[in-house]
Design goal:
about 210 residues, mainly alpha, Vanadium-containing Chloroperoxidase, domain 1, about 0% strand, membrane, PAP2/HPO, EC 3.6.1.68, hydrolase, Polyisoprenoid diphosphate/phosphate phosphohydrolase PLPP6
């Protein structure tokens, strides 16, 4: 009829003319999903390394928050040294901060777990249905920095602590629990959270009420 065609909605224009940044992010996401699935060699009993799945699940438990919280609290109750209590109290603070921050980010991002993941994880809560970031990787990086900074260890033990953090992080992708970007961001977040713990370090001078409890 000669009438001018109605302009496309803005969101349709964006789909038809994606930006360079949008194309790059979509490509990186596709690579992340593809590589994570290929590396999920222990995601099921029938996977390439399915026989190693029980060992990977033991490693998974070693990086879980519940054993770390219970062990730290028990050590805090049993310790008779003021210096040890200070270190353990700050480790407990670090672990609680880690749980809160990971839960908040997971709740905001709401990235689903990889489709090849088996939901047979040890002690899960509501936000554990989400994938980003990896709480195990965050905790591993945080605990690794904390232990290396505040415990006097021989060089072989320091190396073992670093290897433990790396193995826990890698196992998350191998088990199919997380994508690679979940783990990488988790490691960065845990590294940064340690800086927060150091900045807010709890001591008898800064938090006398807490130390009075012990």
């Amino acid at each position: 009829s000669g009438a001018a065609a109605a302009p496309l909605p803005e969101e349709d224009c964006m789909k038809l003319n994606p930006s360079f940044v949008g194309i790059a992010l979509s490509s990186l996401l596709a690579i992340d999903l593809w590589a994570s699935k290929r590396l999920g060699v222990c995601a099921g009993e029938g996977s390439a390394w399915g026989s190693a799945r029980p060992l990977m699940k033991v490693i998974e438990v070693s990086g879980h928050g519940i054993p770390w919280l219970l062990g730290t609290f028990y050590g805090l109750c049993q310790s008779d040294s003021s210096a040890a209590r200070e270190v353990l109290l700050n480790l407990l603070f670090a672990l609680l901060l880690d749980l809160v921050m990971v839960a908040v980010v997971k709740g905001l991002v709401k990235r689903p777990r990889p489709t090849h993941n088996k939901m047979d994880m040890f002690v899960t809560i509501s936000v554990d249905k989400y994938s980003f970031p990896s709480g195990h990787a965050t905790r591993a990086a945080l605990v690794c920095r904390f232990v290396l900074r505040h415990l006097v260890l021989a060089v072989p033990l320091r190396v073992l602590v670093v290897l433990w953090a790396l193995i826990v992080s890698i196992s998350r992708v191998m088990l199919g629990r997380h994508n690679m970007t979940d783990v990488l961001f988790g490691l960065l977040l845990g590294y940064a959270l340690y800086g927060v713990v150091e900045h807010c370090w709890l001591s008898p001078a800064t938090a006398p009420a807490l130390f009075a409890l012990w």
